Amino acid sequence: MGGDFCKIAKSLLSESHVAPEDVECVGASALGTDCVPVDHSCTPLRPAILYGIDARATEEARWLTEYYGESEVNRLFGHKINSGDTATKILWIKNNEPEVYDRTYKFLTGSSFITAKLTGQYVIDQALAKGSFRPLYNADGTVNEAQCEVFCRPNQLAESRVSTDIVGTVTKAASIATGLAQGTPVVTGTGDSTSEAISAGLVEAGTVFFQYGSSMFYYYCTDKFIDAYTSPSGNGSLKGGKDFTIPGTFCLGDGTNAAGTLTRWVRDTFYKSELLTEATTGENAYTVMSEEASEVPVGADGLIMLPYIYGERSPLQDSEALGMIFGLTGGHDRRHINRAALESVAYSTYQHMRLFSEIGLEPERVITAGGGTKNITWMQIVCDMLGKPLQIPEDFQCSAYGDAMIAAIGSGQLAGFSALRRVLPTGRVLVPNSENHQYYAQHYPIFRDLYLNNRSAMHTLSRENHK
């Protein structure tokens, strides 16, 4: 089974001195909108096709748009088809790797793969199935056999279950591989972003969660279903809502293609010496970057960056979008590029908030998580950009902590998500600088229009470079 999961399970049992028999329940999460084809023995047939950062299915998305028509695409997918849709990844395998497709018993995600290896049961979080796998599942979570015809056989899809449902127990083989006791209950589990959001406090409507990892992922938990929305003012578009993992709630959810990957590009390009000396000095290059970014004034002295170095999912849904550095002068140095990169991701976050506002959604709480929260300069930029208090959880509130909470609910150790909300810590709360917020709000149209005014040229260059 998943080697990392096995190592982690054995390490946790060893370091905690908890007897395997005392583990009440197991929950796991991994990438959500990826695609892992497996055979009858749950052996992967190829490396997983990852989330929206893997845009190999662009041609499939174009073909499907022509096949269905834009109106039907919006009804079935809830948005323009993009690289984040799992169904297009399945179609890509069908078209380009027919030998893999023919041998595929189930198309899984990372989390459903782990659960299957633990229990032998092929299940997927119902919310994830109805969201990321559209249109392959119906509104009630059953497989949409009529829509499967284009993509796969209906029996190639996992059964959808609620994330907290106990779906099986640890098998003998899984017990040997992980050190967990045979017969330990296992819940369905969910995607890593969902688990991290829950761990940080996304357990009730009116809360928006932004996760800053390799990409920026968001969830906005609502008490009603929200249709897909395209802004008339050019702010972009939002995918249609879907059922959320929290019973009785819905959510808007999507992600960008770059956040931490953009800061890594800055590090690898402009901070090579700091990267080389990390091992000897012990000072992390990202720490130097955070300090240098804090030395640069708001707005990076007129330098603006577009973060689309891998195309873009939300809110552009444009795999051919390109990054840009605008306003460069001889007075700028690496510190300005560093800060402009952080601000570009914050501008994208703010762009989503503008879209939320246009459809009448004003969050009562803004929470965040992910590796990016370690860069306090970045998080203060985000806080200033949004003009709202920003809650940062404790270090231990991560996807693994969320997995444990989901397992606690599934096993009855917690009465439900409302009970979880009462026991979660508050963490750290940042307060926005009103002057900085005013600056960002005034300059946001420049950020937005740089894409709108250069979109056609971006597409030309993108197609030339991918022939």
TrEMBL record:
GO terms for molecular function: kinase activity. The keyword Kinase applies. The keyword Kinase applies. Its EC number is 2.7.1.-. Pfam families: FGGY_C, FGGY_N. Keywords: Kinase, Transferase. InterPro entries: ATPase_NBD, Carb_kinase_FGGY, Carb_kinase_FGGY_CS, FGGY_C, FGGY_Carb_Kinase, FGGY_N. Transmembrane segments: none annotated. This is FGGY-family carbohydrate kinase. It comes from Lacticaseibacillus suilingensis.
